[in-house]
Amino acid sequence: MVKKSIILMFLEEYTSLSQQWRKINALWYKIFMKFLGETNLTYTEAMVLLATLSLDIPSKSDISKYMRCEPQSITRAINSLVSKELLQRKLDINDKRVVLFDLTKTGHEFSVKTQNFINVNWQKSLGDIDRESLNVFTNQLNEMVLNLEKLVVVNDIDK
Q1: Cβ count near 155 (within 10 Å)
Q2: Mean pLDDT for the chain?
Q3: Confidence (pTM)
Q4: 68-96: per-residue pLDDT in tens?
Q5: Percent of the chain having pLDDT more than 90?
Q6: Closest by Cα among 154, 148, 116 to 21
Q7: How far apart are CA 91 and CA 20, in angstroms?
Q8: How far is CA 138 from CA 24, 25, 107, in A?
Q9: What element of type H or E holds 103?
Q10: 88 vs 104: CA distance, rounded Å
Q11: Which SS3 state, helix, strand or coil, does residue 88 take?
Q12: What is the separation, in whole angstroms, between the first and last Cα of the chain?
């Protein structure tokens, strides 16, 4: 009986956490898409630009790893960004088979503007949460990520 009540308690906490997490994602997406609506870019295109800003002249594989997606899932976004002259292709000087990507001046300006928008709105979303509480929360999220990464490895082995 005690074990069942503990499981129910965790289930209720999980359900609440899951609902709040979905709300945060939905609200953030709504805020970010409103920002992107003024730019004529898709969400994926913006994420490719931000990944390229964070990485040092990456390959498509580097960008996809950073975004945690498959390389083929960003091909359309990359081609669109190149045609919009926000991203440019470069050949790797050490291996001519490898295509690298760099931001154009306009792409860099947009990426910095986007990163600033994210930073400002992230700060607003944190409100008056003190640094200590934020550190505790961050550590808890990091622990969840580590646990999930272990599950991914275990599930990959099971295949």
Answers
A1: 9
A2: 89
A3: 0.78
A4: 899 999 999 999 999 999 999 999 888 88
A5: 67
A6: 148
A7: 44
A8: 15, 17, 31
A9: strand 99-103
A10: 6
A11: strand
A12: 36
